[in-house]
Amino acid sequence: MTALTERMKDGLDAPICITWELTYSCNLSCVHCLSSSGRRDPKELTTEEAFRVVDELRNMQVFYVNIGGGEPMIRRDFFDIVEYATSSGVGVKFSTNGTYIDAATAQRLAAMDYLDIQISLDGADAATNDAIRGEGSYDTAMTAMRHLKDAGFGEFKISVVITRHNIAQLDEFKAIADEFGAQLRITRLRPSGRAVDTWEELHPTLDQQRILHQWLLGHGENVLTGDSFFHLNALGESLPGLNLCGAGRVVCLIDPIGDVYACPFVIHDEFLAGNVRDDGGFAAVWRTSDCFSELRGPQSAGACASCGSWDACQGGCMAAKFFTGLPLDGPDPECVGGDGEYALASAGAVPRPSGDHSKPVAVQLGRRSNV
Amino acid sequence: MLDSPLKLHPSVALRPEPFGALAYHYDNRRLIFLKHPTIVDVVKDLEQHPDLQSTLSAHGIDEQQWDNYDKAICSLIESDVVVAR
Predict the structure, then answer these.
(1) Is B35 in CB contact (< 8 Å) with chain A?
(2) Between A40 and which of A25, A278, A283, A309 could a Cys-Cys bridge form, CB atoms 3.0 to 4.6 Å apart?
(3) CB contact under 8 A, B26 and A116
């Protein structure tokens, strides 16, 4: 652990990495959606309120923001907000499923500065992807990527959440990225949002995690990870990037209604620090909220205190522990030493995420057969 | 590099932090950490002096430490935070 990472544990004057979800509305219903998105929330920030958030980020010298959702491009003021941000010196990277990127939109995006795009793809073929993201979503993503390539957008990102079913496709994902002149970004599946119900069957097995660690070491800094796999460092050699949980220290989430959470994966009252509509705005939440102050204080290693790998893995991901019912001062549910599986066997009740904006499940109304 | 005229890249913004500063390069979207407050002061001030060594002496930095600063500035040149002028 370097002196710098030690300092980061105490928090920074402003976050390095903000995720800002613009809407809970989404045309898809991915089974692992971290924000249980589907329907718009009536309390979502207005365009003017969104501009004020950008003003604050600019004043705090937050250099870029990761915009997501839901599907952010659904908002009719999507381009207004993005253009307001980039012209204020706040760069934008936005995540999208690609539905709203046609040829003309791709050209508009390609002409913008300080803008980066991340297309979500969770399978290297339609069957694997669509099982997670819904029928037709693979073709939609591939079409959007083709438009971006044709428009000369340059190096956009392809963002993959690693699951038990797509982990064998790492090389294929890389090949797709290379084909489009894109950069591959792979991140860890957390049991957040709707994944609270699907994580158990989707998260990689221990053997798969070992393969992933080796693959990541082999691909170095060419593959982005959002530093989300630091729990794998306990397997030996450390992966590049920040080896710590950045929640409330260097990262946070602003959700569509302005609520500020410690990270995108902990949409739960326990990690709610305030709202951008509060007095003092986002800056006050970041600098003075009790929730964030607590996360910046010394953290106990708890049950991991006597484990020789603690320095390497830092106990793993807070969100992963929380939404599997594990204590925060103990092993990650995917602890590569196997302690997570052991802990899960006696885990407490699993907390439910605070909001659920999922679309109502369509009930198939069949004609009543003759009785 | 000690006798080279240098400056902070015009597309780089510096944000003060307790450990020094966070530098963001708007052209290549890279974040770089400046891990000491003094190096931040030096980098900000490079353009006001004929070369690196005169910047260092203007900041009262002991000559024995110039090598270390030279190395630090070289790595900032590699990441395009500092450029020749």
Answers:
(1) yes
(2) A25
(3) no
The model's pLDDT over A354-369, given as tens digits with 9 standing for 90+, comes to 889 998 876 666 666 6
pTM over 0.80: yes
Measuring CA to CA, how many Å separate A323 from each of A206, A297, A332, B17, B57? 19, 22, 11, 33, 55
Q: Parse chain B into domains and list their residue ranges.
A: 6-84
Cβ neighbors of A90 (< 8 A, separation 6 or more) are: A54, A57, A58, A62, A63, A64, A65, A114
Between chains, do A7 and B18 touch, taking CB under 8 Å as contact?
A: yes
| A window 7-46, beta carbon within 8 A of B | 7, 10, 12-14, 16
The CA-atom distances, in angstroms, between A207 and each of A33, A51, A203, A307, A337 are 25, 46, 12, 21, 11
A66 φ, ψ (degrees, to nearest 5): -95, 110
Q: Does CATH number 3.90.930 belong to domain B6-84?
A: yes
ipTM above 0.90, yes or no: no
A319 contacts A194 by C-beta, under 8 angstroms = no
- If you measure CA to CA, which chain A residue comes closest to B22? A16
Query: Per-10-residue mean pLDDT for chain A, 371 residues long?
Result: 71 91 98 97 98 97 95 98 96 97 98 96 98 98 98 97 98 98 98 96 96 94 92 92 89 98 97 97 97 91 91 94 95 94 88 89 64 51
CB contact, 8 Å: A371 with chain B?
no
Residues 6+ apart with CB under 8 A from B39: B20, B69, B72
Residues of B in contact with A6 (CB under 8 A): none
